[in-house]
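Backbone-to-sequence.
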């Protein structure tokens, strides 16, 4: 999601909440908020959880907001594009998916063109990236014949969009990566990890941390802090933080990265992970986007896209024993793969508005003030091999 730096956080709900949940009708019942307006069902569900179990971890709040089976943001809509809340690199230009596809296909060739292999995507949105990958790799001899396509998608709405985009392809869908066939795995994840639920901790004095949790004041959601306690997952952050600093963890990202790394180390393959974030995240990066503008992450649960910066060090560490590349800005990655030559070739067939849009899309993907620097690329790959083209190996003690 192309956004300026994160902002946070007003903690009260706006007075005039638009009630756009599809199933609010009979469910809103007699519940009324402070303004006597109806409380949307997801807010009521969250208030009930807090009343029952106490303040919620941000990760539980975020998971409900994004993925609640009836009211979650992703469950109920297609958030991409001009009519949605944000746009992504594959939606901006076909060049993004074409170059990713060719990089993965070259990596497949470099590993001896194994057959069969799994071509997987995490969080495929509208299926646009996979469609561009498949079109670009059609000319790679044996690639399509050897591949089994696997898409990991929780949203029924987006699965329908993917089915339409990838019509005619033999595709298996899953809710989570789960057990994969004992075959090399070539995987792409663009703007997937930023949607995974995070936890936030505030460094207390000494070596203790307080967790930020979502609590309620009346029917208003607000943030509170737990008592100070040790947090083993943050032992490595004691050296670079001071009291008052906020640090985020993303348990789901670590678990998924561990699974991918383990599979690639054992069976071969490569993963290309593209997202916004940094090697090591610091500070409060949770943000909400609605209609291409910032929103309050605690207001109107389920109505805005919630994301946080990706901590790539965490992914690389969890993915060991797979090797990881140097973390590389998206603009540099795409330039190394030849996006300028590809842009010129496509430009030759375009005129007027289409040409201007194409030039703007090229700039948007690569320019440091647009997506070129904020977004980064990390590859995971097996020992004894090189990362996919466009990326350099990081120095590994074990390599
Ligand atoms: N990769 C696409 C879409 C990015 S939006 C693109 O670049 O355009 C995030 C995607 O991840 C959506 O498809 C969303 O439904 C999916 N998603 C979010 N959380 C998920 C989860 N926990 N498990 C599986 N898919 C998830």
């Amino acid at each position: 999601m192309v956004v300026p730096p994160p902002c946070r956080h007003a903690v009260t709900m706006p007075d005039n909440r638009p009630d756009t949940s599809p199933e609010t009708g009979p469910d809103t019942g007699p519940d009324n908020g402070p303004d006597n307006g109806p409380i949307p069902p997801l807010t009521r569900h969250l208030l009930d959880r807090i009343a029952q179990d106490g303040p919620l971890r941000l990760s539980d709040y975020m998971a409900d907001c994004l993925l609640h089976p009836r009211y979650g943001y992703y469950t109920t809509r297609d958030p991409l594009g001009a009519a949605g809340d944000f746009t992504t690199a594959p939606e901006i230009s076909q060049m993004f998916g074409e170059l990713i596809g060719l990089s993965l296909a070259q990596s497949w060739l470099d590993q001896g063109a194994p057959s069969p292999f799994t071509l997987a995507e995490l969080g495929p949105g509208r299926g646009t990236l996979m469609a561009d990958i498949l079109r670009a790799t059609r000319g790679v001899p044996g690639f399509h014949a050897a591949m089994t396509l696997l898409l990991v998608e929780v949203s029924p709405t987006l699965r329908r969009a993917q089915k339409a985009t990838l019509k005619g392809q033999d595709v298996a869908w899953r809710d989570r990566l789960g057990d994969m066939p004992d075959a090399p795995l070539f995987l792409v994840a663009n703007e997937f990890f930023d949607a995974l639920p995070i936890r936030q901790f505030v460094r207390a004095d000494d070596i203790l941390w307080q967790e930020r949790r979502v609590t309620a004041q009346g029917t208003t959601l607000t943030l509170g802090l737990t008592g100070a306690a040790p947090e083993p997952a943050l032992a490595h952050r004691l050296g670079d933080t001071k009291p008052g600093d906020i640090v985020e963890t993303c348990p789901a990202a670590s678990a998924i990265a561990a699974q991918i790394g383990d599979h690639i180390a054992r069976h071969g393959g490569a993963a290309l992970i593209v997202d916004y974030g940094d090697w090591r995240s610091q500070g409060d990066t949770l943000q909400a986007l609605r209609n291409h503008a910032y929103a309050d992450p605690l207001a109107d649960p389920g109505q805005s896209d919630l994301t946080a910066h990706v901590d790539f060090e965490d992914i690389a560490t969890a993915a060991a024993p797979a090797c990881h590349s140097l973390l590389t800005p998206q603009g540099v990655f795409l330039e190394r793969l030849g996006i300028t030559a590809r842009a010129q070739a496509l430009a030759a067939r375009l005129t007027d508005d289409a040409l201007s849009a194409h030039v703007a899309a090229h700039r948007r993907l690569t320019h440091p003030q647009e997506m070129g620097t904020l977004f980064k690329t990390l590859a995971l790959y097996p020992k004894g091999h090189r990362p996919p083209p466009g990326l350099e190996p990081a120095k590994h003690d074990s390599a």
